[in-house]
Amino acid sequence: MSASALPYRPHNHDTCVSDALADAREICQQKNVRLTATRERVLELIWQSHKPLGAYDVLAELASEGHNAAPPTVYRALDFLQQHGLVHRIASLNAFTGCAHTGEKHTGMFLICRACGNVLELTDTHVSTAIHNAADAEAFRVENITLEVSGLCPRCLAEKNHE
Amino acid sequence: MSASALPYRPHNHDTCVSDALADAREICQQKNVRLTATRERVLELIWQSHKPLGAYDVLAELASEGHNAAPPTVYRALDFLQQHGLVHRIASLNAFTGCAHTGEKHTGMFLICRACGNVLELTDTHVSTAIHNAADAEAFRVENITLEVSGLCPRCLAEKNHE
DNA sequence: TTGCGAATGTTATAATGTTGCAAACCTAGC
DNA sequence: GCTAGGTTTGCAACATTATAACATTCGCAA
Description:
By secondary structure, chain A is of the alpha+beta class. Chain A has 6 helices and 5 strands. In chain A, the strands form 2 sheets. A 3-stranded mixed β-sheet of chain A has the order 4-3-5. The first copy, chain A, starts with 12 loop residues before the first helix and ends with a helix. The interface between A and B is large, with 38 and 38 residues. Strand 5 (141-152) of chain A pairs antiparallel with strand 5 (141-152) of chain B, so a sheet runs across the interface.
């Protein structure tokens, strides 16, 4: 099983977070853009679990920490993080999740468990190729792909079968 | 080129609408569910073009026709139409589009032109298979697939190149 | 140290979607 | 016909998600 399956297995999540933050710092430095305190904190909050977080969830967290935040604060931070490939927006949930493949050029494919809410980000060449082929057949120029699969993750599936 | 490419080509759109309505009537009769006046009118409005329509756009249309409508009216009609496979919701646009493959079991793949706004619905076995394979590899049970590709349709691409 | 662009604060508002309850309406069975 | 029950709609209020516009502050460089 690949490392990408982490969300659905017990794991030391702290390393997910610290890896993501380290990645982010490096990427921002390379691009010469500023990973400000707010942006970094938002990224960290998003990474607190593998369940996507809504903008207003982030906002509430910030507020509870005494941060004087309004919606634009959060949306701006999220825009920045998205722009630099550090988080993804899950359109079907209106929520955000940490990018598990920073740096790599990838077509994020998201497996979203409707029971536990965890999201697994995959990259799959066959999927990506098939989509591009289908688009090519219609002479359509692909710029962005939203691929979100909802269903049941292995753990929740197993639980369900035990009942 | 297949008939599915219609949205991006000139065509007699009235037949799209009347075909969709005829389809809908038949499907509802077969399922023994009621395609009420409101539901039918909403479906017709959605089909007025190949550009997805927001719920509040539909609402505005209904209101302008003197229909005494509130948001729930529209959302309920849309829920019904979705439930019976007559329209699709495009998550990345918060909008709705007529289903071009009623009846067929299909993984809707949507090509959304960011320039003209038209949407083409495709069914592609390879794409569908690749997605299921990728999910299977993670022991994930697929229930629903959201696949929305944004970019430029052939017509807008051609126009752009002329400039 | 001052000037400039980037980032944030602040207020208000827009856009999208839902809840809950009451009234109207079909339709099956008498 | 009529009436009982479920389905559909009307309606008011509200919840959630996202953006606009403008003032202020911050960080860096000339």
